[in-house]
Amino acid sequence: MISLPLTTLLLVILTLIGAQASVPASTATQALASVSVAVDTRPNIVLILADDLDIQLGSLEVMPNLKALLAAQGASFDQAFVPISLCCPSRASLLRGQYPHNHGVYTNGPPTGGFQRFQELNLEDQTLATALQGAGYRTALLGKYLNGYPDPAAQSFIPPGWSEWYSPSSDNAYSEYNYSLNENGTLVAYGDAPADYLTDVLAAKANSFVTRTATTGEPFFIELATYAPHLPYTPAPRHVGLFAGVQAPRPPSFNEADVSDKPAAVQGKPLLNPVAISSIDTSYRLRLQSLQAVDELIAGLVQTLAASGELDSTYIFFTSDNGYHMGAHRLSSGKYTPYEEDIRVPLLVRGPGVSAGVVRRELVSNIDLAPTFAEIAGLTPPAQVDGRSLVPLLQAGQSAPAWRQAVLFEQYPFAGQQPSSRRYPAGIGAARIGYAGVLEPLDPQDVLAAAPQAAYQGLRTATYKYVEYSTGERELYDLVADPYELQNLAAGADPALLAALKGWLNTYSSCAGAGCRSADALTPPILPGSLSRYIALPLLER
User: What is the CA radius of gyration of the chain?
Assistant: First the structure.
């Protein structure tokens, strides 16, 4: 149920209070009670945001609570993507509902990215949090905010829009131990005891927030952002040693034999040797282990929502800030590339009116979450929002609306990026990647150039992908015939098709606000021989 806007509710309440002198007290009380019910029934919104969680590698298969409590009870979006495969700019897109070329946060650190850039551009003054808080929602962020937070602000800084705030403000959060948590402006130090494991601490605080807020009658919004399964992939002690002998998946793209059709940065990669492959397998097992606490977090939160009477009026969204590759196309471990492993993410939703066990095939992006939350709260998204609300795709019994034909994804160079002035202590995280770095452990591509460094922009349709690099290189894949992106068709493609694709990409890469939704409606160029498969591709599987 969508309620009246907050300003309307306040006017109604003031009118009723002023009218009490002329109506019986019992009548005024009943009228006020009806307004209270309208406020109480506004849906709650919970966003669980994992860090670097893949979908291509099958990690969700070891998360039974996610499968039983979210996938089986709601909708799974099989074609969900991020507009950029990098933590901070992707999180900025989520908070703002914008493509990176519009919000201007391009990398994880200054001068072109990070929390500092987000602040410099005054982006935090208008986010999904400020909109929801302004509409009367009690909001809480628990966990990772933006890379580099809180530098250069004070360690106790709380961004606008958050009623409660529990975010690490010290260097070691990625290792899950020995961190400081900014708890509503007070810094609280945590050590290395099992009870200090960060994912568990965040879960307990989220459950407490739900229990307390449920008694107030206020609708709430929670962003619960775990650091798992980000490098250094630290599991809780109770999960150490699980999945012994499990190997990272070996799809046809794993350690690809022939990369001569790929961009030069990939062509230059040697085949992964047995030592590198063993390291990938070890990291994969650690990732699976670290996800067990996230899976338990989901179960505990659903149980708390049920116990507080809020589950049936709460939308729960689960996704990741980007995907992750482990051995695809000879790339060891990381993100940043335009390949499916890095730009495709899980997205699961359960909540009021969402059919159980549905798989949606529409192309969606994390820029759609801000307008989705706005519609759930009865708000109109601001004009700068590039995404579109997913609500029409969530409601059972509604026919599928006209939807976008492609999603845009982008990447920007790291040239000129400066490390934080604060040190990342040598410890479990730094030792595991062999780098005593800065505010956080830099990802492999940051330090070792394990992925293409050239900027690129591309489009992903239901059946193919087109990418243009700043070097002039191109990639074109028929994802129906070649889902693992083994055969780059760009070199032999019809020039007229490439010109049409370039023009379409240019429209998307310069779009803003409503213009992006107009670009969504454009008829896409179709790969020769793929037209029948494109038309036959189901948009909805029940």
Answer: 23
Note whether 364 and 373 are within 8 A (CB): no
Same domain, residue pair 364 and 238: yes
Whole-model pTM: value is: 0.87
Q: Name the nearest CA neighbour of 221 among 351, 347, 355, 51.
A: 351
Q: Quick one: 158 and 73 in the same domain?
A: yes
87 counts as catalytic: yes
Given the residues 87, 88, 511, 516, select the one marked as catalytic.
87
Question: Does one domain contain both 118 and 193?
Answer: yes
Q: Which residues of 36-47 are buried (b: 16+ CB within 10 A; e: fewer)?
A: eeebeebbbbbb
Kindly tell me the burial class for residue 337, based on how many C-beta atoms sit within 10 Å of its own C-beta (0-12, 13-18, 19 or more).
buried
- Per the structure, the complete domain to which residue 19 belongs is given by 6-37
CA distance 222 to 47: 6
Residues 371 and 437 in one domain: yes
In a domain, 539, yes or no: no
Overall number of domains in the chain: 2
Per-residue pLDDT of the chain (542 residues; tens, 9 = 90+): 333 344 434 333 333 334 343 444 444 334 333 344 345 589 999 999 999 999 999 999 999 999 999 999 999 999 999 999 999 999 999 999 999 999 999 999 999 999 999 999 999 999 999 999 999 999 999 999 999 999 888 999 999 999 999 999 976 899 999 999 999 999 999 999 999 999 999 999 999 999 999 999 999 999 999 999 999 999 999 999 999 999 999 999 999 999 999 999 999 999 999 999 999 999 999 999 999 999 999 999 999 999 999 999 999 999 999 999 999 999 999 999 999 999 999 999 999 999 999 999 999 999 999 999 999 999 999 999 999 999 999 987 677 789 999 999 999 986 544 444 433 333 333 333 222 233 456 555 444 444 446 899 999 999 999 999 999 999 999 999 999 999 999 999 888 889 999 999 999 999 999 999 999 999 888 754 553 343 333 333 32
